[in-house]
Write a structure and sequence with these properties.
With 277 residues, the chain is α/β, with parallel strands linked by helices. The chain contains eleven helices and ten strands. Helix content is 40%, strand content 22%. It starts with a strand and ends with a helix.
Length: 277
C-alpha cells in the first residue's frame, strides 16, 4: 500500500533529519511509529504525501512512485491524508464547514457532492451541528476532530496522524482511539506517530521505532516492548501495565517471560496467576 525506500532529508548542511529510512505498510494495517521528540517522525510523515521532497530515496503508493508536479501531488494527496499534531496548523477557514469543504472543492467536485461529504465527515467525527462555528471557538479535541473530518472528506485510502492524542484530555484520548479503530475497521490504512507507549498496544498491530533519523526496529508491540535495548536507544518506557507485571516478577511471581501490554491482557494474566496460587 505504502512504501518508503531509503529516504534521506536534511534541513540544512548541519542537520540531517532522516538518514536512510525504509518501511512498508500494507493495505488495511494500523501501525505506530514510535520515537522521542526529535527522532524524525514528523519529518518522515511530511514525505508521505509530498509536502517534503527527499534529498534521496522514493515514496511509493499502490506501487506507483510519488512525483512532485502539481497534478501528481493532487492525485496522491487524495489517497494519503495527513493530520498534523497541532490542528491550528491545519484549520484556517472562517467556519468549520468551510474548512472541511476546502479539500473537496479543490477536487472541483459538484457542490452537492461537497456538501454531502462535509455533512458525512462531520457526523463521522461527532461534530454535526458545529458547521457554522468559528474554529478558534472550539476546544483542542474538537479542533482535532475537525482536522480529521477535513481529511475524511477527501475519502483517503491512508490516514497519517502525527501525535494525534497531544493536548487531549483522557476522555478525548478514548474518543479519538475509538474513532481511529472504527475507521481502520472500515478499511482505511492508518499510520500514527506517538511517544505515548501506553496507547500503542491498544491499536497498533505493528510498530516501527525511529531514533535520530534511523529506523532501528520493527515488529509487533509484544516483540518491541520485550527488547529493553531497543527501548533504551529510543528513550522509551514499557507500558505501565507491563511495568507492573515486571515488578510482580521481581516479587517472585512466575511470568514465564509473558508480560501483558493492555488492561484486558492484564486481567487475563491476573486470573492465570490466581489460579496458579
Amino acid at each position: 500500500m505504502l512504501e518508503v525506500k531509503n529516504i534521506k532529508y536534511s534541513y540544512n548542511k548541519d542537520y540531517q533529519a532522516l538518514k536512510g529510512v525504509s518501511l512498508k505498510v500494507e493495505k488495511g494495517e494500523m501501525v505506530a511509529l514510535l520515537g522521542k521528540n526529535g527522532a524524525g517522525k514528523s519529518t518522515l510523515f511530511l514525505h508521505l504525501n509530498g509536502i517534503y521532497e527527499p534529498d534521496e530515496g522514493q515514496v511509493f503508493i499502490d506501487g506507483e512512485e510519488l512525483k512532485y508536479d502539481k497534478k501528481s501531488l493532487l492525485k496522491f494527496r487524495q489517497k494519503v491524508g495527513i493530520v498534523f499534531q497541532n490542528p491550528d496548523d491545519q484549520i484556517f477557514a472562517p467556519t468549520v464547514e468551510e474548512d472541511v469543504a476546502f479539500g473537496p472543492l479543490n477536487l472541483k467536485l459538484p457542490m452537492e457532492e461537497v456538501q454531502k461529504r462535509v455533512k458525512e465527515s462531520l457526523a463521522r467525527v461527532g461534530m454535526s451541528g458545529f458547521e457554522k462555528k468559528a474554529p478558534h471557538h472550539l476546544s483542542g479535541g474538537q479542533k482535532k476532530r475537525v482536522a480529521i473530518a477535513g481529511i475524511l472528506a477527501m475519502k483517503p485510502e491512508i490516514m497519517v496522524l502525527d501525535e494525534p492524542t497531544a493536548g487531549l484530555d483522557p476522555q478525548g484520548v478514548r474518543g479519538l482511539s475509538k474513532l481511529l479503530k472504527e475507521l481502520n475497521e472500515e478499511g482505511i490504512t492508518i499510520i500514527i506517530s506517538t511517544h505515548e507507549v501506553d496507547l500503542v498496544p491498544n491499536y497498533a498491530k505493528r510498530v516501527f521505532v525511529l531514533v535520530d533519523g534511523l529506523l532501528i526496529a520493527e515488529g509487533t508491540p509484544k516483540e518491541i516492548f520485550a527488547q529493553p535495548e531497543i527501548l533504551d536507544k529510543a528513550n522509551l518506557e514499557v507500558p505501565i501495565v507491563t511495568e507492573l507485571f515486571q515488578d510482580l516478577e521481581k516479587e517472585g511471581f512466575d511470568m514465564n517471560n509473558d508480560y501483558p501490554l493492555t488492561i484486558d491482557e492484564a486481567k487475563e494474566k491476573f486470573l492465570e496467576l490466581l489460579n496458579k496460587n
